[in-house]
Specification:
243 residues, alpha/beta, type ii restriction endonuclease, domain 1, type ii restriction endonuclease, domain 2, elongated
Amino acid sequence: MNLSFQLQVERFVEDRITLFHERRVASIESLKLLDVLKAKNPYLFRAKGIESAEEMVRALLDARLSSAEEGLFGGFLEQLAIFVSEQTCGGWKSGIPGMDIELERDGVRYLIAVKSGKAWGNQSQHTKLRDNFLSAVRTLRQNPDVGRIQPTLGICYGRFKKKDNGAFLHVGGRDFWELISGEPDLYMDIIEPIGHRAREFNEAFYTKRAHAMNRMALEFMERFCVDGRIDWPRIVTLVSKNA
């Protein structure tokens, strides 16, 4: 990676990673116990033998925050991929529904839908992606100047072989970053700037997390504990009883 591009990537990452951390902290401040509890499986927590309010709230928070962070960071990686393609390969953010990046290389127009990791979506979302690719190809075919079109699912991280399932190309990890940049080592080069100010932001995050733990544990004890014991039927009623 040449120095100029490296500096561009570092500036982009540092700006966007700050926004990721700010949203990460904000996601804690907006949490409400009942909302988190209603979204989780009470039978699972009971099967794990949880007996204390602190342990229960910690498990709820960890599950909720992990899910939120995956979504926030996935959005960051997708933005980074678009930026990289624009700076290196003349790519651009696609205006076609369901597509994220378009770029041309060696006479091929790549239509790329970007996902952060391999374990994305359910079966209906996978079917929707396939439909989006078919629709995008039909749209581009209306332009007689467009040559070969390659629908592509680009995965930001993961280790697997490039494959074509007949409907679209499936590429991930190192191969994905090389496809959109021409840089074989970019997947490694971006790891350092992503750590920009991580320690500083984590201090704020863990402070807010501790405050949320205290607030939610107190509310949990008031609402769902009787004589120091968790009232599991009350929790199940909240989560599963139909109005």
